[in-house]
Design a protein that fits this description.
The chain has ten helices and four strands. By secondary structure, the chain is mostly helical. A two-stranded parallel ribbon has the order 1-4. Helix 3 crosses helix 4 and helix 4 packs across helix 5. The N and C termini lie far apart (49 Å). The structure holds fe (iii) ion. Fe (iii) ion binds next to loops.
C-alpha cells in the first residue's frame, strides 16, 4: 500500500472487522475507522531522538545488548500500580512493616517479593495534618518499577509546572479538595530519588483483609492527586 496519509478505503480489501457493526470499536458513522497516523508520520521530538541515539550507542559500544534493552522495556511495561497497592495495604495493617517502609521502600517492597529496582523510593505518608503530592518538575521521574508507567498527564508541562505553584487548584481539577487545615506538600522527584504517597487508611476498613485494602488503593492516590 502506498504511504498516503489519507488512508483511503475502497473496501475491496478484506478486513477482519466489520465497518457496519456498531459494536466494532473501530466503527464510526462513516463506516470507516478514524485516521490514525503511522508513528513515522509524526516528527520525532528532541528527547525521542536522544533516546534512540543513546540506545543505539550503548548497544554499538557493547555496554548493553539489544536484548537487555528490550528486556528492560518489557520489565517496565509489565509493572502495574498493583505492586504498590500491596505495599500500602501491608503498611496499613502491620505497623512494624510500615516503619520499615518509611525508612526504605525498596527493601520493604522486596520483603513482599516485589523488585522495585535500585533507584531509592521514599514513602511520604498522608495524615490529618499533611497531604502529599508527587511530581517531577524536570521530566517524568516516577517509581515505575513499583507502580508502573506514569499517566500521560504526569508528564505534561501543565501538571509539572502548576502543581508546584497552585497544588490545591490542580487537586481540585482531579476532584480532590483538601481541608485548609491540612498542609499540602509537593515532592519533586529526581533521577536519584523517587516518591510514593501512602494514602490515609479510610475509616470503616478495620475488618478488611490485605487484599481488600489493596483493592481500595488507586494509582492516583499513590501520586497524591486523590485521597484514594
Ligand atoms: Fe524526571
Amino acid at each position: 500500500m502506498s504511504n498516503t496519509p489519507s488512508h483511503e478505503h475502497n473496501h475491496s480489501h478484506s478486513h477482519s472487522h466489520d465497518h457496519n457493526n456498531p459494536d466494532d470499536p473501530l466503527y464510526n458513522s462513516h463506516g470507516e475507522h478514524p485516521y490514525q497516523p503511522d508513528s513515522e508520520d509524526t516528527p520525532y521530538e528532541h528527547h525521542q531522538v536522544m533516546a534512540e541515539a543513546v540506545g543505539e550507542l550503548l548497544i554499538e559500544k557493547g555496554v548493553i545488548t539489544a536484548d537487555e534493552l528490550r528486556g528492560m522495556i518489557e520489565l517496565i511495561d509489565s509493572k502495574s500500580p498493583a505492586e504498590g497497592t500491596r505495599v500500602i495495604a501491608r503498611a496499613w495493617t502491620d505497623p512494624e512493616f510500615k516503619a520499615r517502609v518509611m525508612v526504605n521502600v525498596n527493601d520493604a517492597a522486596e520483603e513482599l517479593g516485589i523488585d522495585p529496582g535500585t533507584i531509592p523510593i521514599r514513602a511520604v505518608e498522608n495524615t490529618d495534618s499533611v497531604h502529599n503530592v508527587i511530581v517531577c518538575t524536570l521530566c517524568s521521574c516516577y517509581p515505575r518499577l513499583l507502580i508502573g508507567v506514569p499517566p500521560d498527564w504526569y508528564k505534561s508541562r501543565s501538571y509539572r509546572s502548576r502543581v508546584v505553584h497552585e497544588p490545591r487548584t490542580v487537586l481540585k481539577e482531579f476532584g480532590t479538595e483538601i481541608s485548609l487545615e491540612t498542609e499540602v506538600c509537593v515532592h519533586d522527584s529526581t533521577a536519584d530519588l523517587r516518591y510514593m504517597v501512602i494514602p490515609k487508611r479510610p475509616d470503616g476498613t478495620e475488618g478488611m483483609n490485605e487484599d481488600e485494602l489493596a483493592a481500595l488503593v488507586t494509582r492516583d492516590s499513590m501520586i497524591g492527586v486523590t485521597t484514594l
